[in-house]
Specification:
The chain has 6 helices and no strands. Helix 1 runs antiparallel to helix 2 and helix 4 packs antiparallel against helix 5. By secondary structure, the protein is mainly α. The longest helix is centred in the middle third of the chain and has 33 residues. The chain has one domain. GO terms for molecular function: syntaxin binding. Its main location: Golgi. InterPro entries: Vps54. Keywords: Coiled coil, Golgi apparatus, Protein transport, Transport. Belongs to the VPS54 family.
Length: 186
């Protein structure tokens, strides 16, 4: 199947742009096979003009109803391939992110890769699949949560390490409050 081959290529290729190009290329191949089957079905149903056929008169053995079913099955097949790829890559994003620390640059790169992959899927099958985007959102949310948690811990440690000096300015403060409130501080 194409997907395990894609996952191996993804692991081997380091550059995000190259990974996206490989994924798009694979989708174009799947789409090309889809288009060949679709054209063959159209030819078998007698829906192509004679000028498009490379050989003489084609055999017409599909009725219009059967041709419609073939086209519906082809659309479903293409959508299933896109969904399967999205789910596999979402699984990869989820499982590889468990114990790894990431930088903001890596999150941005992953975001671009996810968007480009989702765009390629939508262009190929005509609809969006949410699995990969959801896995990315979870991954990015975890990064933001850890980022803020680390910064909060650092600030807490800095404040705890700071020497605090107790100042007794309560009487002066009370004088100012009384003066502001009543106008006379006696």
């Amino acid at each position: 199947m194409i997907v395990p081959h894609l996952l191996k290529l993804k692991m081997q290729i380091q550059n995000s742009g190259q990974r996206t190009a490989v994924v798009r290329s694979s989708f174009r191949r799947v789409k090309a096979v889809h288009d060949v089957i679709k054209e063959t079905a159209a030819s078998s149903a007698g829906l192509l003009p004679a000028s498009r056929l490379s050989v003489g008169e084609p055999d017409r053995f599909l009725s219009a109803e059967e041709h419609g079913r073939v086209e519906a099955k082809l659309r479903d097949l293409l959508s299933s391939v896109c969904d399967y790829c999205n789910e596999r890559l979402a699984s990869l994003v989820s499982t590889q992110s468990e114990g790894q620390t990431v930088t903001a640059a890596q999150v941005v790169e992953l975001s671009r890769t996810v968007e480009e992959f989702a765009g390629a899927c939508e262009a190929t099958c005509g609809r969006q699949s949410a699995a990969l985007k959801a896995a990315f959102k979870i991954r990015a949310g975890g990064y933001v949560h850890r980022f803020h948690g680390q910064r909060k811990s650092k600030l807490t440690l800095l404040l705890d390490a700071e020497r605090w000096k107790l100042e007794l300015e309560i009487a002066e403060f009370m004088y100012e409050v009384s003066h502001a409130t009543w106008g006379d501080a006696t």
